[in-house]
Amino acid sequence: MHNELVKLIRKYPELESCAASIMQAFEAIRQSYRSGGKLLVCGNGGSAADSEHIVGELMKGFMYKRPVSANQREKFLKMFPDNGGYLADQLQGALPAISLVSQTSLATAFINDQSADMVYAQQVFGYGKPGDVLVGLSTSGNSKNVVHALQVARVLGLTTIGLSGQGGGKMNELCDVLIRVPYESTPDIQERHLPIYHALCMMLEQEFFTQ
Fold this sequence. Notes:
By secondary structure, the chain is α/β, with parallel strands linked by helices. It is built from ten helices and five strands.
């Protein structure tokens, strides 16, 4: 078992039932990144905030500094002698991830012109490529806009990962990997989603940015 998963379960023993699915999610995302893929994330309310949070941990240093490689640094210095060192020193290694909740102009235009429950699905249709991963967060597992996004993702050949509550709802049929925390109350579910995706982000960071 991965060391971050061991630490997660030690702190939250009730999440032991999720260990296998967390590891499957890690393997799926790792494989996508190894193959040049990216991560798309969506949710509503608190889960929308979680979507932003996940992207924030993946696109910059989380527990590690992630400096650019010596080869990349040399390229910056060669092309921009005056400030290439500054550019290289300030940049951090990134794992490409997009929060679908952030596109305000696109979302409001699509909601006005088309349908509110398809706003994430439209972005999956535009951004998604085979080999990418879509992570959908829904405490009930039945959020229409998340469900529609997962349906489009499956048609396009993306790997689908869900974070839900105990029941899983419609996400049971749509997710290649579904992490169902053993709670039914929305606050209880969301309180466990956070340490789960923190563990996943740390596992990925260790995979790609440490020796």
